[in-house]
Backbone:
């Protein structure tokens, strides 16, 4: 029973996946992914010794997650009319 | 006072002479051009005298300027000496700087055997109406073969020029080489020849058949002018086998295209030609086969598809976990998933009818049991979300912007390495490889990193207030 149910749901997932993939392929590819800094690893490692860019990235990502949670929470609070 | 000076023409002319003399002394002292002060001096004096003569004053001659010059030369020179002393005065600033910055660089190495000391005298360009440059050099050479016969060729801007034969007996050698105007890089090479006899010619042509290059001495005269002479087609290679040029046609024809640094000389006077070492690749013509033989008449535990197939091919029979007997010549597929700990059989056994029936009933019940258990087994409920993962929405343009932005910033996020301030200089005569010790500045660097991080956090906080409007 569970096996049959699983197969059924899997079919639905496959159909949704194919549909979304077809829709996604309509959009153009990203034009911004041609950055290659592999030849500057030595310089970047020395720059990171003074300016902690890798720390900035980690802090920034955490900050973005916190902001996202804040916005989701505010939306939920407005929905239940806890805040205006 | 200015008006008084302007109205008094004699004072004005004297001041003009002083200015001309002062500038000439200044230029002469700073050694910009040995003849410029004379030109300025006499030219300026002539201009002044001519101007004064035109104005009706003929009593101020260059001789008067000489007198003024002699009177003021001492004071002006003292002034110039004072100007020169200014850079030396900056030495007091060294007292306020850390000592490690001002310590002498100890990592200095001297390269090359010769010349350690040499002197150059380059005659003034304009003295030679044909625009030739005479480079005279006086160096000390010690011949490795104690024969003291040198043939000189000069490499200038990657072309060779013949400078002729010079004989000396391990004493200071003086030679003159003339290069054309425009020689850019003059690199002097002296090939020390090894002689087996004393017959030679001094015409600049071939000297002796047995002359072999042994050592090469390089003198780097630096960049001067360009050259355009190429006289020969005999290639010369360095110790690495790299072609470095063609000596002139009058050089000894027995300069071999080999290494000529530390050139070995055998006891019989012959030399060994050292060709670049080559290595023959080693090829394996026989590839060892990984074989395994399994005796048929033994009972062992087989594990693995290859072992099972090998046993079956060798005439054995195996029994699976579920009791299935697989005879020789057959194969077992999907071994790793279903069949484990198979045991071999010495021979295919004959099973009776009842046993066959019982075995069949057992296998059927087992199948029913499996079917029922699978029906209610939650573990069979398995979903695969791979189709959703393959959507790759973050690679498409409108939705890729935040991901690409983060990726762009992440390109700069590299694991930091300890920074080392190194000074590396390599010249023909010396090398410096020095690493400045940054340990005294470690705390300052750490504090700088803290300030930078705190600044970044402050910027994020200020942006947060704008976003959440708090």
Residues:
């Amino acid at each position: 029973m569970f096996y049959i149910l699983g197969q059924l749901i899997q079919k639905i997932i496959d159909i949704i996946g194919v549909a979304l993939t077809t829709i996604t392929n309509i959009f153009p590819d990203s034009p911004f992914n041609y950055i290659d800094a592999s030849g500057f690893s030595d310089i970047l490692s020395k720059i990171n010794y003074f300016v902690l860019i890798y720390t900035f990235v980690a802090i920034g990502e955490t900050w973005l997650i916190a902001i996202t949670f804040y916005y989701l929470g505010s939306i939920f609070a407005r929905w239940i009319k806890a805040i205006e | 006072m200015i008006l008084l000076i302007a109205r008094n023409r004699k004072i004005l002319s004297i001041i003009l002479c002083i200015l001309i003399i002062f500038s000439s002394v200044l230029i002469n002292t700073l050694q910009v051009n040995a003849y410029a002060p004379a030109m300025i001096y006499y030219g300026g004096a002539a201009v002044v005298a001519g101007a004064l003569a035109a104005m009706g004053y003929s009593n101020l001659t260059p001789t008067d300027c000489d007198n003024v010059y002699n009177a003021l030369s001492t004071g002006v020179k003292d002034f110039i000496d004072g100007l020169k002393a200014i850079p030396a005065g900056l030495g007091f600033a060294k007292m306020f700087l850390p000592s490690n910055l001002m310590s002498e660089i100890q990592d200095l190495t001297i390269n090359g055997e010769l010349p350690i000391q040499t002197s150059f005298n380059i005659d003034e360009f304009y003295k030679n109406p044909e625009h030739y440059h005479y480079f005279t050099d006086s160096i000390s050479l010690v011949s490795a073969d104690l024969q003291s016969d040198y043939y000189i060729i000069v490499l200038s801007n990657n072309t060779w020029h013949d400078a002729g034969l010079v004989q000396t007996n391990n004493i200071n050698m003086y030679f003159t080489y003339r290069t054309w105007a425009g020689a850019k890089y003059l690199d002097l090479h002296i090939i020390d020849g090894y002689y087996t006899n004393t017959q030679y010619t001094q015409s600049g042509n071939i000297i002796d058949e047995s002359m072999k290059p042994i050592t090469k001495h390089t003198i780097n005269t630096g960049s001067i002018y360009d050259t355009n002479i190429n006289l020969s087609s005999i290639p010369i290679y360095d110790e690495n086998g790299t072609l470095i040029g063609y000596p002139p046609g009058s050089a000894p024809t027995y300069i071999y295209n080999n290494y000529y640094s530390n050139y070995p000389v055998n006891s019989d006077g012959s030399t060994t030609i050292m060709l670049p070492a080559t290595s023959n690749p080693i090829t394996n013509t026989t590839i060892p086969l990984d074989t395994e033989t399994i005796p048929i008449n033994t009972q062992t535990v087989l594990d693995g598809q290859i072992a099972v197939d090998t046993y079956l091919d060798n005439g054995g029979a195996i029994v699976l976990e579920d009791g299935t007997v697989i005879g020789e010549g057959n194969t077992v597929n999907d071994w790793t998933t279903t069949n484990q700990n198979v045991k071999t059989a010495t021979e295919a056994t004959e099973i009776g009818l009842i046993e066959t029936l019982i075995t069949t009933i057992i296998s059927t019940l087992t199948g029913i049991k499996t079917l029922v258990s699978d029906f209610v087994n939650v573990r069979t409920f398995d979903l695969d979300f791979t189709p959703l993962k393959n959507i790759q929405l973050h690679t498409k343009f409108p939705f890729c912007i935040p991901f690409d932005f983060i990726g762009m910033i992440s390109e700069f996020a590299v694991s930091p390495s300890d920074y080392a301030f190194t000074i590396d200089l390599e010249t023909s005569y010396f090398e410096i490889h020095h690493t400045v010790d940054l340990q005294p500045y470690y705390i300052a660097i750490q504090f700088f990193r803290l300030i930078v991080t705190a600044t970044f956090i402050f910027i994020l906080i200020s942006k947060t207030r704008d976003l959440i409007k708090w």
